[in-house]
């Protein structure tokens, strides 16, 4: 078996990415088959539990309050609403629910307590529970772990260099710090990025260096294709070619052989043939549901038809790691510390972000 490595260089990764397509596909598929069942694909459902009104300036995101998009903001959902949606997702083949809140960082208080209750409730449905809530302290990560969280998503988005071209309200190091905090618990790490934001090949490789040199590597790596939403600074970006997605998936599989590589945003623009090549190249997870937070996603029935056509089966929950135990709120050993961590705010000017926020 090809051994896992944590010392990939940008040059090595760029060389892999640029291999002749047939060689790249063969190598990625070989590594994939050594470690995974090629006919099993994990299905996750992404649920926006608090939508819009975000104070951050991520150039790709329609939920940033400063941009003029059609996203309607919603307050935090109730535990019952989340439970009902999770049950629906489970009945259509999802083994994981990922709850996303448009927050800069988690704040101790009633809303976080409500999210902890959602985690407890969904873990009792025997589903893998994931959250993506922004930056997180160690104490908050421990409280989520105790509630039964299986995974925490915190994307690096791009290379450290290109990150500064897309976001000015926090720094790349803040992302790494949150991942480090999650690693102090048993919660698995989900972290990936977006291609098609105008980054170079070097930036794509740089992002994979940052992810693959984490030790341990993330258990899940979502690869998103930018969905250019009107009103965001990246609204005019041209869609990427399917071949870019296939190359990115294959390269991710080669440098992170154990991880679940997730085909994430942008699947509505991909043909079944294109997605099939991504699965062949090592993708073994998708997001299901007609929306990914606020952007469109293929209909669940279409996905199930695609699975049937390709002979794929959804992965059962808790295959990679045991189901975490849920500790009830009254038995918790961790108190809310009410910390006010100093997450950075670089505040450099990104012209296109500034222009988009000033547009009427
Ligand atoms: S990506 Fe997340 S942090 Fe950035 S603006 Fe959107 S909701 Fe906020």
Account of the protein in words:
- By secondary structure, the protein is of the alpha/beta class.
- It is built from twelve helices and twelve strands.
- The protein has helices at residues 10-17, 21-35, 79-91, 110-123, 138-147, 160-166, 172-183, 201-212, 242-255, 272-280, 300-310, 351-358; strands at 40-50, 96-101, 128-132, 151-153, 188-190, 193-195, 220-225, 260-263, 283-288, 291-292, 295-296, 313-314.
- Strands 1, 2, 3, 4, 5, 6, 7, 8, 9 and 12 form a ten-stranded parallel β-sheet that branches.
- Helix 2 (21-35) crosses helix 9 and helix 5 (138-147) crosses helix 7.
- The longest helix has 15 residues, at 21-35.
- The structure holds iron/sulfur cluster.
- Homodimer.
- [4Fe-4S] cluster binds at residues 54, 58, 61.
- Pfam families: BATS (PF06968), Radical_SAM (PF04055).
- It catalyses: (4R,5S)-dethiobiotin + (sulfur carrier)-SH + 2 reduced [2Fe-2S]-[ferredoxin] + 2 S-adenosyl-L-methionine = (sulfur carrier)-H + biotin + 2 5'-deoxyadenosine + 2 L-methionine + 2 oxidized [2Fe-2S]-[ferredoxin].
